[in-house]
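Subject: Ubiquitin carboxyl-terminal hydrolase 47 structure
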Amino acid sequence: MVPSEETQFVPKERVFWSCSQNIFDEIKRRSQIHNAAEEPRVLCIIQDTTSAKTVNERLTLNLPASTTLSKLYEDVAHKAGYIKGTFDLAWGNVLDMAPLEHNSEMSLSESGFDSGGKRNFLQLTDRDGEQPQIASVTDLYSSGLDDSSQERFIGPLPRDGSACGSGDYSSPSYSYSSILSKSDTGYVGLVNQAMTCYLNSLLQTLYMTPEFRNALYNWEFEDSEEDPVTSIPYQLQRLFVLLQTSKKRAIETTDVTRSFGWDSSEAWQQHDVQELCRVMFDALEQKWKQTEQADLINQLYQGKLKDYVRCLECGYESWRIDTYLDIPLVIRPFGASQAYGSVEEALQAFIQPETLDGPNQYFCERCKKKCDARKGLRFLHFPYLLTLQLKRFDFDYTTMHRIKLNDRMTFPEELDMSPFIDVEDEKSPQTESCTDSGAENEGSCHSDQMSNDFSTDDCVDEGICLDSTSSTERAFKPKSLLTFELFSVMVHSGSAAGGHYYACIKSFSDGQWYSFNDQHVSKITQDDIRKTYGGSSGSRGYYSSAFASSTNAYMLIYRLKDPSRNSKFLAVEDFPNHIKSLVQKEKESEEQEKRQREIERNTCKIKLFCVHPVKMMIESKLEVHKDKTLREATEMAYKLMELEGVVPLDCCRLVKYDEFHEYLERSYEGEEDTTMGSLLGGVKSSYMFDLLLETRRPEQVFQPYKPGEVMVKVHVVDLKSETIAPPISVRAYLNQSITEFKQLIDQATGLPAETMRVVLERCYNDLRLLYVPNKTLKAEGFFRSNKVFVESSELTDHQVPFTDSLLWKLLDRHGNTIRLLVLLPEQSPGTLNLSLQQQQQQGSSTSDSQKSSDASDFEHIESPTQDADSNSSLCVAADNRELENRIRATPGGSGGTSSDNENQFACEERSDSEVNNDRSTSSVDSDILSSSHSSDTLCNADSGPIQLANGLDSHSITSSRRSKAHEGKKETWDTAEEDSGTDSEYDDNGKSKTEFKYLYFRAEPYSQDDASWETQKCLVVYVDKRITLAAFKQNLEPYVGVPSTQFKVFRVYANNQEFESVRLNETLSSFSDDNKITIRLGRALKKGEYRVKVYQLLVNEPEPCKFLLDTVFAKGMTVRQSKEELLPQLKEQCRLDLSIDRVRLRKKTWKNPGTVFLDCHVYEEDISISSNWEVFLEVLNEPEKMKSMSQLAVLTRRWSPSTMKLGPFQEVILESSSVEELKEKLSEISGITLENLEFAKGRGTFPCDISVLEIHQDLDWNPKVSTLNVWPLYICDDGAVVFYRNSTEETLELSEDERNELMKKESSRLLKTGYRVSYSPRKEKALKIYLDGGPVKDPGQD
C-alpha cells in the first residue's frame, strides 16, 4: 500500500529540523521586514527626455537603499509605461557619464545614490537612438497588475492635453506615454486636439468600414481643381492612409479639421457625434458631386420609410415617402417612468401607429369629414449600413434642464429587421394608396422623430426595397437578407453638460473587438461591449461608482450580412496608383519628420545676448546642434545677431553669462573645437545660465573670465565735486582679502590703496564700509555681481564715523533720489520762467543763511532755495541742447577736463540721475538698477580706465533689466482720500507746524525731444523719495505759481488713469523713476475733508444712476449744511435749480439706494464717511416725509398679470417693520383689498428687474411672516424693492406668437439693464463644416 500524504511516516529528526527551519525562516522574514522599515530610503526624481510632450513630466520613486539597479529599471518601466530594456537612465547633473547598468545587482547606495531625503536626479533617455517602447496591456499585466485592473484600459482614458471630459467621471491612474510607437494591436489612434473625441470616434468607425474606406481610396484628387488644404475628401484620404500605414501610435487630425474650415477654437467646442455624422456626410456629398462617389452616402447609409395616415371608417390612406440616414430610438417614452429594455422594443415602438381621435381627428378627403384615423411609419428600405441613435439626451420639464438618460438598453450582435417591415394592427379591405403631401423621395421629412433628410435621385436605390413586393412575397423573404451584424458602438461617458466619446469597433478582418479611445487602441471582449448597455446592474469592472451608469452606448452601426456585397479592406498592394503615390509621399514625410525630431532632440536651445554697437542690448535664442563646435556656434550667433559688416567675426566670442545678475561667469579660451553639448552640459529643456556674444575693437584683447571669479562694478566718488562716476568693472576672487581687492581697484582706477575707502552696497540702507584688511570678500558678503563705491582723499571726512560722514550722505542721497515727470496746469506764456526767476531770487536772498548752516547737513545743503553755483544749479536760461550735454556725467577716473562749474553740475546730475539704484533690491542684484546716463567700463591690468571689450555697459544691459523690473512691479494706487490732517504736525491748510526739514529736490524744464508734452508745461523733478507729499507740494509752489493748498497732485498710471494723491504725511516711496504726475488747479483737501461723488437717483428711468459732480464734505458738517453747499454747485454745473426741502441725500452702495440721511445727521458722527465716497441725491415730488431713523422707506412696484406689465416705482414710508402696515400702505395706493393683496421682495441689485414672463412664479409671493426684518424678506434698511399684485387678477393668455414677441421685447429690455435672462439659456455653438475653407466674417465685426 502506498501511504497517502496524511499517513506517511517521517523520522523524528526530520520533523525537528523541518520545524527548526520554518522557525528560522519566519524569524529571518520578520527581521527583513523590520530592517526594511528602518533602512534608509533613496528619493529618485526621473525626468523623461525622450519626447517634447514628456520633458516636463517627473516620476518620483522612494526606494530602499538596498534596491538594485536592475530593480530600479523595472520600477521606472512600470511607472512610466515603458518596456524594460528599451530606455536608459543617466545622472541628470553629471556631464558625459555612461548610463546606469541595466542588469547590475549593485544597490543604490553602492552606486552613488544619496539617501536620507536628498534628491537624486536622473534622466530617462533613448537607448541606442531608439524611442522607448510603450508597454502593452499584456506587458502591464505580466508586470504585476492584478486581474481587477485589466478593465482600466476599456472606457474613458485621459488624453494628452485634452479637456474633453466634463468632469463627470474620474480618470484611472495612468502614466504618460509617447505617441511615437505603434500600438501592439496594429491599429493607430487619433490625437485629441482638445475636445474632439466625438470626431475621433466617427473617423475610426468610417475607417473600419471596408465599403467606405475602399470607395474613398478609389476617389482621385485633382490638384488643378481644388486646394488640397480645403479638400475634405483628400484630407480624409490622407488620414486613412496614415491610419493604415503609419508607424506612429497616434496621428493628428488638425489637417482634417482645417479642411472643415475650423480654427483652433473649434477644438474646444463639444458636439454631438450624430450631428457631426450628418453634417460631414452632407459636406462629402457636396464635394463629390459629378464624381463616381456622388451617391456613395445614399448607397451605404440611406433608407426609406412611409409616413401614412389611414382613415378608420373608409380605409382611405394618405402617405408620403421620406428618407433617413439613421433611426432615432427613444430610450424612455415621454411621461413614462420605465425605459425600453432593448433596441428591438424601441424599434417596435418607433413603428407603432397612434390613433387620432377626439379633438385630434383627421379630416378624410374621401369621407369629407373629420374621422378617427391611424397615423404611423412603415419601413420600406433598409440601408446597407444601418445606423441607430439611442436618444439618451432629453429635457426635464420639472427642472427645466437637459438631462442624460442612463437607463439600460440591450442591443444584439445580430439584429433581425424583418419584424419591422410594414407593421399594421388592422387593414381595411377598402385601403387605397395615394400621395398626399408630396412625391416620393422629395426629401422632406416631417416626422418629429426623424433625423435630417438628404435628397436623393428617385431612380437610384441600393437599399433593401420592399415597397413593390406583395405582402405574400414579403412574408417569405429570406431572413438572412434582413440580418445585420453589429460592428461599431460609439460610447458616451458623462452627463448632458459634457463628457467623452470613444468607439468600440469590430474588425471585419479577424472578428476581434477593439477600443478606439483617442490615441489609445486596445483589444476588448464581448463582456466589455455588454458593459455599454447602461444602467447599474451587473459588474461594472473598472468603472467607479461616480460614473458607473453614465458610460453607455449612444450610436450603433450595423452592416447587412450579404456575402455578395460584403467587402474586404483593400490591401496595400491592391491600392490604386494615386493611393500608392500618396503612401510613398506620406512615408517620406514621416521619415523626414523623424529625422527632424531626431535633430530637435539633439539641439541645444539657449538664450543669447549681445551688446550690438548700433542696436544696443539685444536678445535672441541660439539653437545649435550638440555636436557643433564652439567655433561653429560663434559663427551662427554672429549671423543671428546681424553683426556682419559691423564687427569682424574674429572680434567676437561666446562667454557664459548670467542675465539676472549681469554676471560674466567664464570664457572658453582654448576650447574652440569643443562641442556645445559638452560645454553646455548636454541637451536640456532649460539652462540655468545664458550665453553672451562678446565683441571687441580690433586693437583690444579679450580678457579671460575664469570660473569662481566675481564681478564688481566700482563707482569712484569725488567728495570735492560730489561726483559719483560711472562704474568700472573689476573681477576678483571671493577668497581674496580686502587689501588685495583694494590693489585691484588701484590698478583699475589709479586711486592710492593706502587712503582708499571701499563701501559695499548690499541692500537698502545697507552701505557697509570694508575696513578689515585681512577679511575675505566672501566673508564681507560678496556674490556673483556686486557694486562698490570707492573714495580716496585727504579730507577729515575719514575721521568721523561712517554714518555721519559726507560720503555716507552722498551715497544715501544717490540711492534714494528718483526722477519724476510733472505736468503743470495751463498757464499764460512765461509763467514758468517767471516762477523759476522767483525761485532764483529766493535762492539769492536766502543764500547767506543757508551757507551759515552746518555744511555736513545734506538735507539743508540740497534745499531748493540753495544757491549752488547759481549759474549751474538753475537751468532756466540754459538752452535745452546745452542742458542735455551737461546732464551727461563725467567719464570717471582721477582726472577730468571739465570746468569746475561743469563738474559741479555733473555732480548734481550724477547723484540725481542714478535714480534706478533702488536699495529695496537684494544684494545679489543691487547693481542692476544703476544710472541710465552712465556707461560701464572695465579695467585690464594696465592702469587707467579702458572701455570694456564687449561693450557691456550699464546703460545697455541695465536698462533692459530695469524695464523688466518695473514691468513686474505692482504699483500701489494712492487713491484713498482719507483724513489727511490727522497728524498733529500739519495745520488746517496741510502745512507743517514744525520747522520744515528739506530733503533733496531739484527741478528743470523737460526737453521737448524727450516727450510729447510741451516744453513750457512740464518739469523733470529729481527728488528724494523719502520726502512727504506735503513737502513735495511746497517745493512745487514756485513752479505752479499758487500756494500748495490751491492745487492738487494726480498720479498717472500706465493706462493713463489719474488718481489724486492726498495723504500729505505719506512719502513718495511708492513712486518710481519716470512716473508721471499731473498738477491741477483747485482747492486741495484740508484736514477732515473728503472728496465725494454725487449721483442722481432716478428710480423710474431706464438708467436710474446718473453722475452729477464731485464735491467736498467735511467732518462735523450736517447733512443740511452739505445740501446748502451742494445746491449752488448743481445749479452752476448741472443746471439743476432745486429747493433744499425737495432734495434728499441717501447712501449709495454700487447701484443700490440705501439709508436716507436726515438733515440733522452729522458726518463722521452719525454717518460714516470714507475715501472715494459716493452718495445719491434724490429729487422729491413733495416735502420730505422721513423724519426719524425708526421709519423705513420702501420702493414698491405693482405687477398686473392681466396686462403683463409692471407699474412705476412708488415710495412707501413705514413707521415700523410690520408686514401688516406694509400691506395697508399698498392697499391705500392701489385700491386692492387686504385679503387679495400679495407681495414679494425683489431680487438682485436695484431696480431688481425681472421678466414679466417669470415674475409670477420666480418670486416668493406672500411670505408667511409678520415682520419685514426676518427671513425670507430681511428688509432692514431703506431702499428695498417690493412687488405687489392682486391675487384675483387672471393672467393674460398669450398665443405662441405673442409669447415669442413678448419674450424678445423682455430680453431686449432686460439686457439693457444688465439683467441675466434666465429663460434664454446660452446657445451652444452650431456645428458647421465650411465647404469654401472657412466662415465669412463680417468686416465690421471685431
